[in-house]
Design a protein that fits this description.
Two copies of one chain form a homodimer. Chain A is of the alpha/beta class. Chain A has two domains: about 140 residues, 3-Layer(aba) Sandwich (Rossmann fold), CATH 3.40.50; about 60 residues, Winged helix-like DNA-binding domain superfamily/Winged helix DNA-binding domain (Arc Repressor Mutant, subunit A), CATH 1.10.10.10. In chain A, about 50% of the residues lie in helices and about 10% in strands. Chain A has a six-stranded parallel β-sheet, sandwiched between helices. In chain A, helix 4 links the parallel strand 4 and strand 5. In chain A, helix 2 runs parallel beside helix 3, helix 8 crosses helix 11 and helix 9 packs across helix 10. The structure holds a DNA duplex (30 and 30 nucleotides).
Chain lengths: ~220, ~220
DNA sequence: ACCCCATCTAGGGAATTTCCCTAGTCGGTC
DNA sequence: GACCGACTAGGGAAATTCCCTAGATGGGGT
């Protein structure tokens, strides 16, 4: 079973690699990255069986990375390793095509179970996230959840642009990274600002942080 | 005893006003604001006996607001009402001239004690912040605390500019607010970026948030 | 007293970015 | 086929940022 590991923190990538490889010799880690964009690229090149991905990644968040991977390498199974199922967009991850969702607080044994489960094409949710799902979806037909406008009103592409801007890139750099024209990035920025009802980059950064697209590390 | 209340949240201002006025009829709340800059102005105009201020305020943080007030109306006693003494710059507040420091979790009785103590010109620290002070200053001659570069390498003026920028203002708006030229704001921005070793507004916003100059509300 | 240096101030002018408007292409959907 | 949302991008004006220079002020050290 060939595994690709995506995580915001490089140390965690190494830790998970070590952990996965102690789980048995039918497990091989074929690669790792802290960038979502690079993750998509690696998934395409390496065609891993399972992608073990965090929700927060550089350049492209976990949800949209999942969406992209499912788009380009549909046979891949994505298992999300989130830090906090309550605050992070569980539903969006599942809609994007993730098969499993566990939290960082799970034990190694549970990780192995989860990986094997999604490898066989079945859904795996840790107890914690399962109950969150029940609460938000089954029980809450009224409270209507806004789940952060970033994931409801912005398009995937707009989120990519927002994240790259919030990571400190200018229009030109974002354009280079996404292989589009700087003018297009401008248009996206305008549209994002309009949708989020703001007119300052500072507020965009705040939105991005709240949505988990980036964090306070610099 | 005439009291001025400064707090980021308007509701809290009202709550504190009500609370203070139940403490006895020798207490009068003479004003309130959620802005540090306005707070300084009010302190000058109203010359309150005690300023009860939060650490996080709009436009100018609690530490620098205290510094300004001590500068312009030295007889005023400033009592800081912080939310978390561990993460917030207690030492800086005391250096800036605050006489007291208590946390939001204190009881009404303690607030009254604190206000009366600082009114008489004596220092009041709640038990919690006192122990933080001991730990960081008395016991920690080695660990040297970095207390966020924002408070160690930036000048007060630079922090003002940083905060206003992080609140979504452009150079012109910052300049208007501070009554200086937009060009001066530019210079400050450059200097701040150099000191914080960054070249993007996004990173400035993150620094500002970490230092508690602004938060994720928009 | 005197000098030094940090701080705050600000302009000129080039370079870059943002803003506003328009518009083509594509892939679904009704 | 018509329509719409998403993504793309250009032109051109407006605004902002960047780099460099520089004066005023005031505290601190010798």
């Amino acid at each position: 079973m060939r595994i690709l590991i995506l995580n915001y923190e490089r140390v965690v990538i190494e830790a998970l690699t070590a952990l996965v490889e102690t789980m048995g010799n039918d497990f091989t880690v074929v690669g790792g990255s802290d960038s979502g964009l690079e993750g998509v690229e690696l998934a395409r090149r390496l065609t891993p069986d399972v992608v073990l991905s965090g929700m927060k990644l550089r350049e492209l968040n976990g949800v949209d990375t999942t969406r992209r991977i499912m788009d380009e390498v549909p046979d891949t199974k994505v298992l999300i390793l989130a830090s906090d199922p309550k605050s992070e967009p569980l539903t969006e991850a599942l809609e994007a095509g993730a098969l499993g969702y566990i939290t960082r607080h799970s034990e190694a044994a549970e990780l192995e179970t989860a990986v094997r489960t999604v490898y066989s094409g079945k859904v795996y949710l840790c107890p914690e996230s399962a109950s969150v799902l029940v609460e938000t979806k089954v029980l809450a037909e009224d409270s209507e959840e806004e789940a952060d406008v970033v994931f409801s009103v912005l398009t995937p592409r707009e989120r990519e642009v927002l994240q790259l801007l919030a990571e400190g890139n200018g229009s030109k750099e974002v354009a280079d990274r996404l292989n589009i024209s700087p003018k297009t990035v401008d248009t996206h920025r305008s549209n994002i600002m309009q949708k989020l009802e703001t007119d300052s980059l500072a507020d965009l950064v705040k939105h991005a942080i709240r949505a988990g697209l980036t964090d306070l590390k610099i």
